[in-house]
Specification:
Layout: H1 4-17, E1 30-36, E2 41-50, E3 53-62, H2 65-78, H3 83-87, H4 91-97, H5 105-129, H6 136-144
Helix pairs in contact: 1-2, 2-5, 5-6
The protein binds zinc ion (ZN).
Length: about 150
């Protein structure tokens, strides 16, 4: 019988081979890029936002298995959610899906890059499109992730 650790490991390998929502969106409502130079992870996200909901999200780039798996999970969680719900997503929502809550510090940036990019992207959208003055909190949250 497989242990939970084996199952999570298999999920990460599977996501890294076949990432979810991988690709680009032409003329997206918002896009954001960031990288984790320590590991070489580099991702872009693209989102379309309609009626205050993320109607489509894709990510593109390259990264280690943990980065690709967490980016995949992030897009699966975000797709179809309202901006308010997306703003509430915390790191454990993503790490928990893959059993990575106790990830060693050296790999945490791989895991959280996608969430950081997501928070900055939503911040950029709110600040630029809606002149939302509360968006600054999101920027602080993003920079505090790691
Ligand atoms: Zn990495």
């Amino acid at each position: 019988m497989s242990s939970n650790a084996d199952i999570y490991h298999e999920m990460i390998v599977e996501y890294s081979r076949h990432p979810s929502n991988f690709g680009k969106i032409e003329n997206p409502d918002v896009t954001y890029h960031d990288s984790n130079p320590l590991c070489g992870d580099s991702i872009d996200i693209f989102m379309n936002i309609n009626d205050n909901k993320v109607s489509d999200i894709k990510f593109h780039g390259r990264g280690c298995a943990i980065c690709m798996a967490c980016s995949s999970v992030m897009t699966e969680i975000v797709k179809g959610k309202t901006i308010d719900d997306v703003k509430k997503i915390q790191k454990d929502d993503i790490l928990g899906e893959l059993g990575l809550q106790n990830l060693q510090a050296v790999r945490i940036k791989c895991a959280l890059l996608s969430l950081k990019v997501l928070k900055y992207a939503i911040y950029t959208y709110l600040a630029n499109h809606l002149n939302d003055t509360n968006a600054d909190a999101l920027k602080q949250e993003a920079s505090a992730l790691y």
